[in-house]
Amino acid sequence: MNKTRLQRLQQLLAAPVEAMTITKKAWTAEGGAKNPEPGDYLQRGEAFWLVVKTEGAELHILQSEAKLTPLERELLKWALQGGATKPAGGITDMENQARRLGDWIQQSIGAGDWRAEIPDRLELHNRLFDGMIPFLLLSEQSDAREPSYVELEKAFRSYISDEMLLIPIREREWLILGSDRLLAEVDTTEEELVEREETKEALQSLATGLHQMFTEEWGGECHVAVGEPIIPTESLVYTVGMLRETIYLGRKFHVGMQVHLPWLIHLERLLNGIPEPVRTRFMEEMAGRQDLFADPETVSTLDAFFAMDCNVSETAKRLFIHRNTLLYRLDKLKQEAGLDVRSFNDAVLVRIMLLLYKVTKRK
């Protein structure tokens, strides 16, 4: 709060008002709510604390010994939460509601409460419905101009639909929720397994289009993760945490990839959970075989082979080479490393080695 507004507030309350910054831990230690929001009030003896803004693990508060009636407290809370339809600065009521939901999501993740359900007091609770598709978008261009909420919302609505909700989580990180009706255009069959695979392909296509739209409009590099349709009132916090982890693992194990799918990183998640000394010891034991991955052709061949589920014919098509050329490369790998990726056990071992090599070579 700037100095002028602070002085005006002191005049209205007829008492000194001090702007302070405290930790959320200090707030809860004094008896405050676990997930404080702007406008939350806490009486401390003769003085009170009033939350103005939440920022990570810190709270910007006002402290005063003014005597407030219940009505005055509600009016202050209304003012701090942006009760007007369009407050100063052009921030709409929808953006204020979205930011409050985003702050609550971030606080819940920070507190480790991934299973938290959205409380009724958050206005957007009533705009969430079953079967929403979650996208998490992270921009990495710290030196670029961050688009405004209104600009992003307009662009995403044109790409997704008017039912879309845009929720800022952290700086340059946005959650986009769209209706599962986006999947209605996908041709499906009667077989449930095939239908689910087609749904995943459609989700990947939507995420790729979202990434392309963002980079064409604002430039720079960004990452997009997408999940299967959810019941947001019950699993929104978990979903954001899962998609955030998906982007982190994708950036760590697959440099150069910008669209990340949680159902394709199960092995990466497992490897990331293994203690670093254990991973290092494993790679040292395989020291004689790591040199194979220094060859770009070998790496690209293996990446394509695993991406095509170890199917020789499909891998050859993807690499635009003859099937016999691919077989020659695989036989060469077998002769030099004693590992035949056409064998299940060896394929698993090479896949693990390749993923860990991509991480360790960058250190």
Plain-language structure description:
The strands form two sheets. The protein has a five-stranded mixed sheet, with helices on both faces. A four-stranded antiparallel sheet has the order 1-4-3-2. The chain is elongated and about 85 Å long. Strand 3 and strand 4 (58-64) form a beta hairpin. The chain is built from 14 helices and nine strands. The chain has three domains: 3-80, no CATH class; 96-268, Alpha-Beta Plaits; 274-360, Arc Repressor Mutant, subunit A (Orthogonal Bundle), CATH 1.10.10.2840. The protein has helices at residues 3-13, 24-29, 70-80, 93-110, 149-159, 192-218, 232-253, 266-272, 276-285, 287-290, 296-307, 312-319, 323-337, 344-360; strands spanning 17-23, 41-44, 47-55, 58-64, 132-139, 165-170, 173-179, 222-226, 259-260. With 363 residues, it is α+β, with helices and mostly antiparallel strands. Keywords: Coiled coil. InterPro entries: CdaR-like_regulators, Homeodomain-like_sf, PucR_C-HTH_dom, PucR_C-HTH_sf. Residues 299-355 form the PucR C-terminal helix-turn-helix domain. Pfam families: HTH_30. Residues 179-206 form a coiled coil.
